[in-house]
Amino acid sequence: MSVDTASISSSVPPIATTSPQVPADATEPTVVVESVSISPILPAAGAAAATPRHIRLTSHAGGFGALPIHWGAATATERGPVVGTTTKRAHRNVIGTHSGSYSVYRALAVAAGALNPQHKADLTNTSPTDVIGPYPQWSEPGRIVSLDPWGATIANVFSNELAAGYDIRPTIAITKAHVILPEVIEALQSGRLKADGKFLTPNGAAIVTKAAIEPVWYLPEVAKRFGCSEADLRRVLFEETGGMYPELVTRSDLEVFLPPIGGQTLYIFGNPADLANPEVELTARIHDECNGSDVFGSDICTCRPYLTHAIEECIMGAQRGGVGLVAYSRKEGRALGEVTKFLVYNARKRQVGGDTADQYFARTECVAGVQDMRFQELMPDVFHWLGIKKIHRLVSMSNMKFDAISGSGIEIGERVNIPDELIPADARVEMDAKMAAGYFTPGAVPDAEELKKAKGRGLTE
Ligand SMILES: [Zn+2]
User: Fold this and answer.
1) What pLDDT score was predicted for residue 12?
2) Which residue among 294, 372, 381, 432 is the active-site one?
3) Residue 357: DSSP 8-state
4) Ligand 1 centroid vs 296 CA: distance in angstroms?
5) Alpha-carbon span 46 to 25, nearest angstrom
6) Which end is more exposed in the chain, N or C (fewer Cβ atoms within 10 Å of the end residue's Cβ)?
């Protein structure tokens, strides 16, 4: 791949000038710098003072003992483990570190002296409650590019490597839970749901299997999904994060990136093994995080009502002999973040003419530059990890999600919209705008006149 040497060298001088290893030839300013002292820059505070007083740059190919990754290989042994820990840097075979955005908190814990950076996880009794796969999709070219299908079972499939001293961490964890939601209790009390003691207890607890998944990106295939070259993807990821991961541009041999973003959580109602059986009715919702509505009940959107409706549908599906799945992605505010989202709310409600559906997307675009950054291109990976071939009932109106899932080769049967009575009054603007933009609805699509009507509350109402 091509490397923009000008932009790399501009990030290096304060460090490189202190290093005796920098070559006189300035055309290759970074590739041989492995370790440089910058002790005057770091404050000597807490236990961090006991750590080595130099920074390890990783712009240097060929760590001793780093295992190769053959992404998409049929077996775990052929694929090789993802080693993103910093305890033994020579073993690292990826860019970035584990835990997504929480990698920064881990760094803070080390900086504060609360965490020994050499700590190795004791994985006793942490193995998955349910085994997922392996499924044929795991090794079909280009099917799974943004998570590690072997991420839940590293203790089994990489036991030899673990015994040899490789610090391999799970990127997926699977456990059991009871989830208790007021909407489900209300459905039970009103008779819409019936307790069976198997999927739903008499006190309204839904019995689920849940999985947490961290992002693991195979860069060559991620680039393909977004229609750009791998070199461009690497350069833009590097530049637009302020140069956070220099290896994106200096280490083209490292093809796997653990991005510092939120992951996904799965809630499975019924037997997880049934997800891969196209004969078993699957009810599924893919839900993108909306803290304001999901957790705090804000009524400007339909997120929580749609989520709890999907959970109700999943419970009923499981009780019919099927299986239910809610895949929850950390993509707050269309992946624009909550600050942008709240700015947009103000812009919508203060605009001349009030909060109208016809200006709904325009107001987001004015603030963010785009309508949406969720880009559903990577979303279907999780379905392929679960072995899913058919979704009988997709609880979503999003045409983007529908297109991404069906475009990835998964058959979709019925589409289930949110019932009108669950749409909060202030969320009518969003719902009308989305239906006019192509979201699925079995009813009438609002016309231009309808979209001009101010339906959202004012800011002080
Ligand atoms: Zn929302």
Assistant:
1) 37
2) 372
3) G
4) 10
5) 39
6) C
Distance 43 CA to ligand 1 centre (A): 42
Q: Compute φ and ψ for 211, nearest 5 degrees.
A: -130, 135
What letter does residue 72 receive in the DSSP assignment? T
pLDDT value at position 439?
A: 92
Do 223 and 284 touch, CB atoms closer than 8 A?
no
Residue with tokens 């077996």, as numbered in its chain: 75
Least Cα distance to 56 among 4, 9, 19 occurs for 19
Which pLDDT value is given to residue 277? Answer: 98
Please say if 374 is a catalytic residue: yes
323 pairs with which residues across the strands? 282
Residues of the chain with pLDDT under 50: 1-49
User: Of the residues 234, 363, 374, 415, which is catalytic?
Assistant: 374
372 part of the active site: yes
Whether 55 contacts 35, CB under 8 Å: yes
Per residue in 256-290, pLDDT tens? 999 999 999 999 999 999 999 999 999 999 999 99
E strand or H helix that includes residue 337: none
> What's the CA-to-centroid distance between 188 and ligand 1, angstroms?
25
Question: Of 201, 322, 307, which Cα lies nearest the Cα of 270?
Answer: 322
Contact in structure between 58 and 33 (CB atoms under 8 Å)? no
Please state whether beta strands 205-213 and 264-269 pair in parallel, antiparallel, or not at all (unpaired): antiparallel
Pairing of strands 256-258, 282-288: unpaired
Q: How far apart are CA 261 and CA 230, in angstroms?
A: 19
Ligand 1 ion: residues within 5 Å (CB): 290, 293, 301, 303
CA of 371 to the centre of ligand 1 (A): 14
- For residue 406, report the distance from its CA to the centre of ligand 1, in Å: 24
Amino acid residing at 130: D
CB atoms within 10 A of CB 108: 12
> Are the CB atoms for 117 and 50 separated by under 8 Å?
no
Tokens 């509350």 sit on residue = 457
Distance CA 364, CA 87 (A): 43
Query: Three-state secondary structure along 328-376?
Result: EECCHHHHCCHHHHHHHHHHHHHCCCCCEHHHHHHHHHHHHCCCCCCCH
Give the CA distances from residue 4 to residues 9, 29, 59, 60, 231, in Å, rounded to whole numbers and listed in that order. 9, 12, 14, 16, 10
What percentage of the chain reaches a pLDDT higher than 70? 87
pLDDT value, residue 7: 41
Rounded to the nearest angstrom, the distance between the alpha carbon of 292 and the centre of ligand 1 is 6
End-to-end CA distance of the chain: 56
Question: Among candidates 215, 216, 207, 184, which has minimal Cα distance to 130?
Answer: 207
Compute the distance between CA of residue 241 and CA of residue 234 in angstroms, rounded to an integer: 11
Classified as helix, coil or strand, 268 is strand
